[in-house]
Specification:
Layout lengths: L1 E4 L2 H12 L7 E6 L5 H12 L13 E5 L10 E6 L6 H6 L2 H6 L3 E5 L13 E7 L6 E6 L6
Parallel strand pairs: 2-5, 2-6, 4-5
Antiparallel strand pairs: 1-7, 3-4, 6-7
Helix pairs in contact: 1-2
Amino acid sequence: MTREVKSVEETWALAQEVAATLRQGDVICLEGDLGAGKTTFTQGLAKAMGVAGRVTSPTFCIVQEHRAANPSPGAPALLVHMDLYRLHGEDDVIAIGWEDYLSEGAVLVVEWPERAGSLIPPDAIHISFAHLDGGERRMIEISNPHRIE
């Protein structure tokens, strides 16, 4: 699925569609240039999951945890936003709690997913962000949308 968005609100609406399909333990891989909308998308995802509070980029802290206030029964209650840019491979990714988060049923939103190597599951949702015309318009492409139409 490919969608052009022209605002934060449209990005959040797309994130809400994705959030409605999420199951515990899902991994979402975000790819795109700086300022292309990855954090904005994650904010919309968090909001749709019932997370209260501010969601910012984990660039300097590597991992940020966001808990849903009142998740529906069986719905993911924890969103973990990871920026793997400063890590050097799978061992580093495991060291920051990758397996623990998945065993807890967290949804992992991962920037720089290539640093996680084979830890990325085959059914991961890959979302690519690109600027259009240097303005507010962005192209968001979702691949391997196993539950997203």
